[in-house]
Write a structure and sequence with these properties.
With 253 residues, the protein is mainly β. The protein contains three helices and 16 strands. Helices cover 9% and strands 30% of the residues. It has a four-stranded antiparallel beta sheet with strand order 3-4-5-6, with no helix packed on it.
């Protein structure tokens, strides 16, 4: 397989791998002569070429993070950033030909399998391998471990006070604790004058009047049992005949 450009070969040796970025803007090829080349996907123009330390045996691109994993014939592994076109990580530990590689979904781990019957997980941010819980790259730590606790009492030094007869209870600004002196007054002022009233709940089913046109039934008003007869008294206009009838009714005559 060869990548042709203007009727000329893209690599002098056999092509060991081809990858395309997620936007189909960049094509990456790896040749047996030890070169990684970057091409424009549409115009087929060569953008950049990177020399490798050994002949690559395969490549794998993680499109989301733009990281290219490169396996070599000398059983080494390198990680290349396609944005800067530089090697950012180098791993060694396999003792046989690397058969396959894969990235974790988030791009933090690179998992490789080799003919030495091992599968190794490489942590890209730290540059370490999780093999028997031992890291391939060890670093000295200058900080000493925490001392063991003992039963002796530790003397506590109080902070400097504002005055000889004063005790500092808080290091916060005055505006943060001065209101505590008048806390009862503040609560009394903030107390509502009337308790909150619960709104009257509407009925679950609103009654309707039967008919062709649906209408809501008006609430029934309570019947007033008191008499609605108004006694006008002296303001009433009465005739002489009406006055004689009232007198006869009162005397039963």
């Amino acid at each position: 397989m060869q990548f042709l450009l203007s009727c000329s070969v893209a690599h002098e040796g056999a092509i060991r791998g081809v990858a395309v970025d997620g936007l189909n803007q960049l094509t990456i090829t790896a040749g047996r002569e030890g070169l990684i080349k970057f091409w424009k996907f549409k115009t087929k123009d060569l953008v950049h070429s990177t020399d490798l330390s050994s002949s690559p045996s395969g490549i794998l691109l993680h499109r989301d993070s733009g990281i290219l994993g490169i396996a070599f014939d000398d059983f080494g592994i390198s990680v290349l950033d396609i944005e800067t076109r530089k090697i950012v990580r180098r791993f060694s530990g396999h003792h046989g030909r690397i058969n396959d590689m894969t990235f974790s979904p988030d791009g933090r781990w690179l998992i490789t399998s080799s003919m030495d019957c091992t599968i190794k997980t490489w942590d890209l941010p730290s540059g370490c391998a999780y093999v028997n819980k031992r890291y391939l790259f060890l670093k000295d730590v200058d900080a000493a471990g925490a001392e063991e606790t003992c039963g002796e009492m530790i003397e506590y030094d109080s902070p400097e006070q504002l005055g000889e007869q004063l005790v500092t209870l808080s290091l916060l600004p005055e505006s943060r604790w001065k209101n505590l002196l008048n806390l009862d007054i503040i609560k009394k002022k903030n107390k509502p004058r009337e308790p909150p009233k619960v709104p009257k709940s509407a009925p679950f089913f609103i009654p309707t009047v039967p008919g062709l046109i649906p209408r809501y039934a008006a609430p029934e008003q309570e019947n007033d049992t008191q008499s609605k007869v108004v006694n006008l008294g002296v303001l009433a206009q009465k005739s002489d005949f009406y006055i004689h009838l009232e007198e006869a009714l009162s005397t039963n005559e």
